[in-house]
């Protein structure tokens, strides 16, 4: 599967890594290899991406696809590409990479709504508070029979699920 959570805090990485079901790995920005704690993950299983390099990004997606096959692992990728400047709002349109992998492999894409991580740790001002960190893992969206032409529709479907649950839980 490809898990697609919304992104509002660096805490998202910890919560998804600890609580999403299955054997998973991340694809994330190269800068995380320099952050204490996150660099431990990114030196092992995860795949860093140098976003400003088209060639590096392309190679990272090839590596992710191969790693999924070799390890039988799920990919966690934040389709917004980064924490939006106006978080908790969703950055749309989503980056196409997660959707491209799901369609190429004909595997489900799973929207994941993270509700409380901004309150627990605001990455912009490095402030936080204790409390719960709710995560909603939604029904997988099948990609069997879909083509690359269907990527915009898939992006919209995932966005709609995330937006609905953020709005319903009064995050937006």
Verbal overview:
This protein has 172 residues and is an alpha/beta fold. It is built from six helices and eight strands. Helix content is 37%, strand content 17%. Strand 2, helix 2 and strand 3 form a beta-alpha-beta unit. The model has no long low-confidence stretch (mean pLDDT 92). It has one domain: 3-Layer(aba) Sandwich (Glycerol-3-phosphate (1)-acyltransferase).
- The number of strands is 8
Let me know the average pLDDT: 92
Distance N to C terminus: 27 Å
Query: Ranges with pLDDT <50 over ≥5 residues?
Result: none
Portion in strands: 15-25%
Fourth-level CATH superfamily: Glycerol-3-phosphate (1)-acyltransferase
Strand line-up in the sheet with most strands: 3-2-4-1-5-8
Give helix % range: 25-40%
CATH architecture: 3-Layer(aba) Sandwich
Gross geometry: globular
How would you sum up the major sheet?
Answer: 6 strands, mixed
- Given the structure, what is the number of helices? 6
Oligomer: single chain
Order of helices and strands: EHEHEHEHEHEEEH
* Secondary-structure-derived class: alpha/beta
- Computed CA radius of gyration, to the nearest angstrom: 15 Å
Q: What name does the CATH topology carry?
A: Glycerol-3-phosphate (1)-acyltransferase
The domain tally reads: 1
């Amino acid at each position: 599967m490809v898990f697609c959570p919304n992104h509002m805090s660096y805490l998202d990485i910890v919560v998804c890594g600890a609580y999403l079901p299955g054997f998973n790995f991340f694809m994330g920005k190269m800068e995380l290899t320099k952050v204490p704690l996150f660099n431990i993950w990114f030196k092992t299983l995860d795949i860093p991406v140098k976003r400003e390099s088209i060639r590096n990004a392309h190679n990272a997606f090839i590596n992710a696809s191969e790693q999924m096959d070799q390890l039988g692992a799920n990919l966690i990728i934040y389709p917004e590409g980064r924490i939006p400047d106006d978080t908790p709002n969703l950055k749309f349109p989503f980056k196409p990479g997660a959707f491209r992998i799901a369609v190429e492999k004909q595997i489900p894409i799973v929207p994941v709504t993270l509700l409380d991580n901004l309150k627990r740790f605001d990455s912009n001002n490095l402030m936080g508070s204790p409390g719960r960190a709710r995560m909603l893992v939604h029904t997988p969206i099948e990609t069997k029979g879909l083509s690359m032409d269907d990527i915009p529709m898939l992006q919209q479907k995932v966005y709609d699920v995330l937006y609905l649950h953020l709005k319903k839980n009064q995050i937006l």
